Amino acid sequence: MTNPRDFDMQRAAGAVDLSLSRRPLEVSRRSLLRAGFAASAGLAIGGALASCSSAGSGSGSPQATPSVKPRRGGTLHGVISDSSSLNKLDIAYLDDTMDGLTHGLVYDWLVQIDQNFNILPGLAESWEPNSDGTVWTFKLRKGVTFSDGKTLTSEDVVWSMQRISDPKGNGAGLAIFQPYFGPGNVVAKGADVVQFSLKRPNFLFPQVVACAYAPVAQSNTTNWKNPATSGPFIVEAYNPGVAYTFRRNPNYWQSGLPYLDSLSFLTEQSQPTKVEAVLTGNAQLGDAMDASYNHAFLSSSTTDLLQAPGGQYPVICFLYNKAPYADPNVQEALRLVTDRQKMAQLAYFGAAQPVADIPVPPSDPWYPKDFPVPAADPEKARFLLKKAGQSGLKVTIYTSPFLPGIAEVPVLYKEMAAKAGINVSVVDVNETTYLSQVWSAKPSFMDIWLRQSTAILPPLLFTPRSPYNETRYPNGDIAAAFASAFAKPNKSDQQRLIGDALHLIATRTSEVIPCYADFTWPKSKHLLGITPSWQTVVDLKTAFLAS
Amino acid sequence: MVRTTWLFARRSIVAVFTLLVLSAVVYFASRLLPANPARAALGKTASAAQVHRFIVQQGLDHSALAGYLQWLGHVLTGNWGTSLLSQSPVVQLALPRLLQTFLLAVLGFIVGSLIAIPLGYLAGARADSRLDLAISSGIVGLAALPEFVVAVALLVIFAVELRWLPVTSGAIESTGYGNPLLAYVLPAASLGLVVVPQMARQVRITASEVAREQYVSAAVLRGIAPRRVALRYIIPAVAGRVVNVFTLTLAALFTGVVVVETVFGYPGVGQLLVTSIGNNDSPVVEFCVVLMGTGYIMLNLAADLFVIALNPRLRRTGVM
């Protein structure tokens, strides 16, 4: 059983959410992240909007300060399933959990972000927009050095931003940056000032450069096997798909951090082996796993779970350009058959929150107030289908076992839809077939997205020519609604207009989002100070091993 | 000696031809796979322009024949190319893993032999006895267990419950996860147990046959001690007859360790090969398949040479 003292220590360290610590959760794996990386989490609803958008400054850390005195030293051993031979240290590349984790260990960002999407200082100690939100100026902190001894300058930031936004490159976050800036929009103004001249106004722009795809490297880096880095740890050994070792950066700019001397991660693609490695103490941390293992960790005297709401969401996509899914009656009927509470309970063992077809969890600071989750109404759905001339609609939903936690969603949906006379069949395909022949190609298919900022992901999903637009939504209304929200300097206006845009998503699009699932990683009880991060998967800067 | 040399030369020519056919089949089959390496490398959120650029950069827009000939030309000059997905040199990516897999196969073979030979001999030399029945029943039971069951059972008993051995074989590659040498034990034992039935049955039936040979009966009738009969007459004859099967077992082990590697997180080539096939990363697949094919062919050849060496009649008749 959980030792109460240890549990309190973790609660103090911000590693445990009491309200959810006993709830099981489904998984995430490599392909899931490849399918749209952005690490997860957000521990609580907070009034966090304050510093999300406008100018800011300071020197704080996004982590909760543990009340238990952190212990210096020691080596953290981790086992990661979502890791592969494709892993790279290149800042433009982000494929899976290990990539996200590694980038978070060795690189820094212009700004950091906390679990409530507050923007905090990173390499930039202050930032401010011009009056219409089209020009953002970031002032860099002094005294940041790379592992080769060179001092960070604005040239490094400019070069990094140009690399990740190069339209001729293969940058993983290109679609995120392209609407706002390209290589020609970022310039150095002196040694410690970087200026972005945006293609369109955005008062939430710091959210964009805080995303997982925007770390900063040393300018003109070509040796991505052993780059000079400025993050809290330095790569010591990097064997993609096998083993990764990092040691503390003694010159890290955040004074006193990190606490750990070194970290060692192994690729362990067998979930049972990964689970046993943490349970037996061979390792102190593992990445996401099947919910069926949760109980083992919670009932052990030496282990528990790092858990937080709002990690990822499953979505049933219906292509807008395929009949009859552009019909509003059919769209509403497909939404109305969904019993969201039951879906969260059965598909995710309760470790999920029902949502009203919007890609934002209820714990998110932008989640609209008074946005009710609709109850299932199969009779009304049947009526709407009849009205659309689609009684007895036949739907084939393609899914893939590589999309963890969502295998159950289409099966449950099939049962729910049958009550409205919709005949659903579910087809499983393998991962490679899914990416090349199913995703955004079949009329209806399953997908899963990891959490990203509301200022980033929802607009991209419904911008007509965006590669994120998986349902081929053809209208510019949703993207325009978000754009107008981001162009408002006033926070209450932003909140109201984002709410309006989310309402459009919930009512005009051809997808069903029944719930938002939690984030769960297994860990040793002695590992404290660790927090989920939607910038770096988990934040290990403040992690320490209690004696 | 001349015949053996001729056999080696003839087999080498056939091997080269076989490898060419093998590489061609793998290459053209990979073109039929639905997997799109561009999507696998860039992810679903890559734009159409990015995907197109990747396809052109990697030469995937060429015809399959042109692509194969280009690959072959590079290989003949010693250039195995780079992985389509990771952009790492294929040799650098796969060779260390192939060597680890080969080591595991050899260790598994040794474990299997150490268990299978005594059991098979005891059962065969005392055919139809209770001991034979007990051993044969055990072997049938073991044969019924799939690799992953054996592997997980060993993992649970020796790593999880007894905690004598590390859970993950990652200890081989990184410090702090246990003794690196101990990390080989469970994968090798699992692999060895999987081939015990096949090897033990072969030893048993051969030992049973040899034990009934007239020269063995004559040796017994001459009053030679049973131990000496076994060491001098039965075991050498059995060894000569089973060496071929044993060598082929080693070859099969080399190509069949994927499950065991997966269960223990062993840093071999199995997972890399499966991932590369799934992502249609043809340079990696080609390298692995050709090297594994070479290993298989060499072991087959070695088996034949062993048989010839142990059976002088074959050297004279040249039936091989």
Write a brief structural summary:
Chain A is built from 16 helices and 25 strands. Chain A is an alpha+beta fold and 547 residues long.
Rg of chain A, please? 23 Å
CATH architecture of the largest domain in chain B: Orthogonal Bundle
What is the CATH topology of the largest domain in chain B?
A: MetI-like fold
Name of the CATH class of the domain at 309-518 in chain A: Alpha Beta
Helix content of chain B: over 70%
Oligomeric organization of the protein chains: heterodimer
Helical percent range of chain A? 25-40%
Which residues of chain A form runs of ≥5 with pLDDT under 50? Answer: 1-54, 57-65
Question: Keywords for this structure?
Answer:
heterodimer, A: 547 residues, alpha+beta, Dipeptide-binding Protein, domain 3, five-stranded mixed β-sheet, B: 320 residues, mainly alpha, MetI-like fold, 2 domains, globular
Task: Give a written overview of the molecule.
The complex is a heterodimer of chains A (547) and B (320). Chain A has a domain at 309-518: Dipeptide-binding Protein, domain 3 (Roll), CATH 3.10.105. Chain A has a five-stranded antiparallel sheet with strand order 1-6-7-9-8, with helices on one face. Helix content of chain A is 25%, strand content 22%. In chain A, α9 (328-336) runs antiparallel to α11 (378-387) and α15 packs antiparallel against α16 (491-508). In chain A, β11 (233-239) and β12 form a beta hairpin. Chain B is an all-alpha fold and 320 residues long. Chain B has two domains: 2-76, no CATH class; 94-317, MetI-like (MetI-like fold, Orthogonal Bundle), CATH 1.10.3720.10. Chain B contains 14 helices and no strands. In chain B, α5 (90-125) runs antiparallel to α10 and α6 packs across α8. The chains are: A alpha+beta (547), B mainly alpha (320).
